[in-house]
Amino acid sequence: MNGFNLIKRMTGLAMVLMAVAAAPAFAETQRVVPDSVVAMKQSFAPVVKRAAPAVINVYVSRKVKQIVSPFADDPFFSRLFGDNFGIPRERIQNSLGSGVLVSPDGLAVTNNHVIQGSGEAEITVALSDGREFPAKVILKDERTDLVVLRLSAAGVTFPSIEFSDSDSLEVGDLVLAIGDPFGVGQTVTSGIVSALARTQVGISDYQFFIQTDAAINPGNSGGALVDMDGHLVGINTAIFSKSGGSQGIGFAIPSNMVRLVVQAALQGGTVHRPWFGASLQPVTQDLAESLGLDRPGGALVKELNAEGPAATAGLKVGDVVVSVDDKAVQDPEAFQYRFATKGLGGTAELGIVRQGQAMRATVQLVPAIEDPPRDARDLTGRHPLVGAKVANLSPAVAEELGIDDDGPGVVVLDVAPNTPAARLGVKRGDLVVGLNNGRVTSVAGLVKALGAPADGWRLSLQREGQVYTVAIQG
Predict the structure, then answer these.
(1) What is the C-alpha separation between 296 and 293, in angstroms, rounded?
(2) What is the tens place of the pLDDT at every residue in 424-469?
(3) Same domain, 320 and 392
(4) Same domain membership, residue 335 and residue 397
């Protein structure tokens, strides 16, 4: 990741939904610079006392299989026998991160990379007062690198933190980062908001991060970034570092995105985002001049789905989207964040520029369609794709995976470890575009082709716009 080290029951469900879903009314805050020595001696302690009890430690333990061999590091034996040469043994793999309690009934949020790994995981959560509780995952959203946990403790009322409106933040605002860096115990660091809307970070699909200089270190992942009211403005996620420690460049997922994922956990356990139905690209300086823009910025529509909301709203290829509900977007990543956090239902007002003329478009916030039906199947038999789970590509499937809808086609939903597909390097999100010089357009067609007698296989996969072809002997 180019220098990035990821640090990667109330009385009823209705009350929890109301507490999480209802955005508080945010008054205009008076921001002032300290004007005396007395003002400079003011303390963050009241803010910490309010927020810190809701910040938790997340311990993850899992059993993993490891091949033990005295020749493990010998390249000759590795080439001859592969990675499975030796004695398989089980060991316990532990990881540590932070998290935040967001409801009194034990709903918590952390980063997906904190709990990610192979094997069945056992998750334990420790509160700042020393109490420990088992927890289970109720929603995992890899696209935002967020996970929602439920603590198992009947009748316990937990300390929790309120959401703030992350859009109310300004560069220069004071913030506190609370977590458990390096496993030393709960730690609070202070800093300012260094930048907003950081989109070229490469951490998750939804890149729109708060940047802060508050010290964030390994173990802080999933911890809280709070404002001076003690409210949650972000989930600390990553740092830019060449040493592994804090260098004053940390990134947090905005609370408005976190709240969307928490709401999804409470309402069924699946994140449903609005479908735009268009492919976008950045606007460079050269493109800006040719499109009649006075400066580069915005998201250029390069392709439209004829049945999608964008086309229905009247957008055309070549339009540049410059705002969502009057909030400026600088690039496709910023648009994606602004549009996704609108949620489903209602409409979004887009500001667009077409051939140099400013226009408005109203887009319906609806879920992506699943056409064709996904027909998901686990591939078995004797062929190089054994272990892969595939489906027909549709707008809905493309949205789930965070890829472009280049259908019709077949996409990989998952790959089981230690299977032929895994050893071949097949990954989630890959498109199977060709097999033995024939084009693959459906799951049924792929299964039929894989079942035909063959002396070998010629497989073509598309990943991030590039097509890779490999020949495998039978």
Answers:
(1) 7
(2) 999 999 999 999 888 999 999 999 999 888 888 899 999 988 898 9
(3) no
(4) no
How much of the chain is in helix, strand and coil states, percent to nearest 5? 20, 35, 45
Cα–Cα distance, 456 to 474 (Å, whole number): 4
Is 221 a catalytic site residue?
A: yes
Gyration radius of the chain over CA positions: 24
Measured in degrees and rounded to the nearest 5, phi and psi for residue 45 equal: -55, -45
CB-CB contact of 322 with 349 (8 Å):
no
Q: Place 41 in a pLDDT band, splitting at 50, 70 and 90.
A: low
Distance CA 186, CA 179 (A): 5
Summarize pLDDT for 154-204 with one digit per residue, the tens.
889 999 999 999 989 999 999 999 988 777 778 899 899 998 877 766 666
Q: Would you call 113 a catalytic residue per the annotation? A: yes
Q: Exposed (0-12), middle (13-18) or buried (19+): which is 83, by Cβ within 10 Å? A: exposed
Q: Known catalytic residue: 231?
A: no
How many domains is the chain built from? 3
Residues 264 and 195 in one domain: yes
Q: Name the active-site residue from 221, 279, 323, 460.
A: 221
- Indicate if 110 and 169 belong to the same structural domain: yes
* Catalytic pick among 98, 103, 105, 113: 113
In this predicted model, what pLDDT tens digit does every residue of 356-405 receive, in sequence order? Answer: 899 999 999 999 999 899 999 999 988 999 999 999 999 999 888 888 88
For residues 100-124, b (16+ Cβ closer than 10 Å) or e, as one string? bbbbbbbbbbbbbbbbbeeeebebe
Q: What's the half-sphere exposure (Cβ side, CA atoms, 13 Å) at 471?
A: 4
Supply the range of the domain harboring residue 338: 278-364
Out of 105, 145, 227, 319, pick the active-site residue. Answer: 145
Strands 320-324, 438-439: pairing is unpaired
